[in-house]
Amino acid sequence: MFPELIDTRPLRRAVDNGLDWVVANWGSTFEAAAHPLLLMLNGIEALLIAIPWWVIIAVLTGIAYVATRRPGLPITVFIALMFLGVMDLWEDAMSTTALMIAATISAIVVSIPVGVWMSRSRRVRQIVTPILDLMQTLPSFVYLIPTVMIFGPGKIPALLATIVYAAPPLARLTDLGLRSVDPAVIEASRAFGSNPTQRLLGVQVPLALPTILAGINQTTMMALAMVVIASMIGAGGLGYQVLQGIGRLEVSRGLFAGIGIVALAIIFDRITQAFGQQLQGRIGLKEARP
Amino acid sequence: MSMTAQPEANPDLAISIRGVTKIFGPDPDTALAALDGGKSKADLLAETGHVVGLDHVSLDIERGQIFVVMGLSGSGKSTLIRHINRLIEPTAGEIFVNGTDVLKLSLPDLRAMRSSDVSMVFQKFALLPHRSVIDNVAYGLEIRGVGKSERHGEAEKWIETVGLSGYEDAMPRQLSGGQQQRVGLARALALDTDIILMDEAFSALDPLIRSGMQDQLIELQKSLNKTILFITHDFDEALKIGDRIAVLKDGALQQEGEPEQIVLHPANEHIEEFVRDINKARVIRVRSIMRTDATGPCDMTVHADARCEDVLPLFADHQWVGVIDEDGRQIGRIGARQVIEALARDHPH
């Protein structure tokens, strides 16, 4: 046994009491602050459910065709969406998609500026990188419990947990993409009298865009990976079906909902990847596919 | 060495640099003191890890010249050219562009200077890969804040000048190296600055393409009368396009003068090594080797600016060839012996 060097009980008590104090005194403030997130999530969800199923299938299949100009991906997308409909998972899939989209939008708003900041300062990168590591490796239940205590079970903690888990790769890849831009091109831009903002928006971001898009792809995938955990604290959707399947030992329910999550993942992964490749071809970092 | 002794920069000079020193490393000022105290560059590197990029370089570049800075890799020539528009800050020294002290400019004024006084062409082209040819050429004007239709009109004009009409909407990656560098040249010309910096602009091109670009640059210079500071590691290129040449080695200026002067009177062994391998007949003009002793008129005459290779065939039929000036007056004569002496590798004297 490791010898007891100090008494850790006061420390634990301090943390627990501190959280209780925050919940008691600041709970409503936090809830009000997170309200816009809830509005966004509910808005997206209501919209997706209100749009007729065939419109969504047509639009996504169309986007898949525009992204690749080949029949393969549109067919895959069509089959995946039909599966969701036929298996009576359409509405659940739409709420899961809404959660994923809301988390991705929030991650874009937060992570891209953080990535830009990281790329410009070594010091910032040294401080932010371990925080991102922590966000990705800390078991989500550890921060889920305090979040649920503060906000109460529901969609807000589910969305926050998803954002915490899904945002880091976008910040990392934004930083990487901006730092990988050819220094000769940046020097040329400087030599023509550009200011830092002109360089960032006119040269660095456009050239880093394929990498940033890869980050958005990662974020969508990680957001989908969180849906089962998110459903434990109040998010509905496919994750909730899986959870119910486990709870009731209904293997079929869990299995079909699980495959539904995979279907969504395939749709969004392939579409964003195809757009990334198209973009790379367009700016000449890689030969465009014929 | 006192850096403040220079009272006023000569405003007639396009570029004037005085005692510019650049030391790379953690503590350049201490290293500079050691260098000025007589420590050698090798010792400085071995003992303190500081690299001397430029060592008290002073140059005056007159308007309307193609001024070539020649040096092997590591000689500091690319570092030097980046001091003119302050892409690199010197450790010590003064830099004047059109009489303005560049080092005293605020950041916005420096950007204005880069945008309106000094443009640049790069060795690896450094085009913006996500923009079409016309948007690359118009880039400097866009930074300057010129409206879209106006800058496209201007860009169009320069694309035509460099011979790329029809490629306006092509992307840089679709062009060959020579075409890409024409875009780089047009991008610099479109700003219509008095001074153009060219950093090994043709070094990445194939020999034939390079030769064509050199001719085009000389032609352009004749019509535009810019001041061009051209960096190269190729002595033949320097001789071909340079009105004046400065030779750098290990960050220090070795010799500066007209191409002919350098070929005829290399200042040291390092420069002699370059001179040994070139075709001197193409560089040396009859003016500098003719005899001026009084004689009667010759049957055959050449202009004083004619080169040795131009007069050589004439010696088949004539013992002496007269040398005439712009007004057609004979100012001297030249025989095969003078040419042979000038071209011979080792002079007996």
Give a description of the structure:
The complex is a heterodimer of chains A (290) and B (349). Chain A has helices at residues 9-50, 53-68, 72-86, 90-120, 122-137, 140-151, 155-166, 168-179, 183-191, 196-225, 227-232, 238-247, 251-282. With 290 residues, chain A is mainly α. Chain A has a single domain, classed as MetI-like (MetI-like fold, Orthogonal Bundle), CATH 1.10.3720.10. In chain A, helix 6 packs antiparallel against helix 7, helix 9 (183-191) runs antiparallel to helix 10 and helix 12 packs antiparallel against helix 13. Chain A is flat and about 60 Å long. Chain A starts with 8 loop residues before the first helix and ends in an 8-residue tail after the last helix. The mean pLDDT of chain A is 89. Chain B is an alpha/beta fold and 349 residues long. Chain B folds into two domains: 63-90 and 102-280, Rossmann fold (3-Layer(aba) Sandwich); 281-343, CBS domain Like, CATH 3.90.1280.20. In chain B, 36% of the residues lie in helices and 22% in strands. Chain B has 14 helices and 13 strands. Chain B has helices at 28-36, 41-48, 77-84, 107-116, 133-137, 139-144, 148-161, 177-189, 207-224, 235-241, 259-264, 269-276, 308-311, 336-343; strands at residues 13-24, 51-62, 66-70, 92-97, 100-101, 118-121, 195-199, 227-232, 244-249, 252-257, 301-303, 320-324, 330-335. Chain B has a six-stranded mixed β-sheet with strand order 6-7-8-3-9-10, sandwiched between helices. In chain B, strands 2-1-4-5 form a four-stranded antiparallel β-sheet, with helices on both faces. In chain B, strands 11-12-13 form a three-stranded mixed β-sheet. The longest helix of chain B is centred in the middle third of the chain and has 18 residues, at 207-224. Chain B is globular. Residues 1-7 of chain B have low confidence and may be disordered. The chains are: A mainly alpha (290), B alpha/beta (349). The interface between A and B is medium-sized, with 21 and 28 residues.
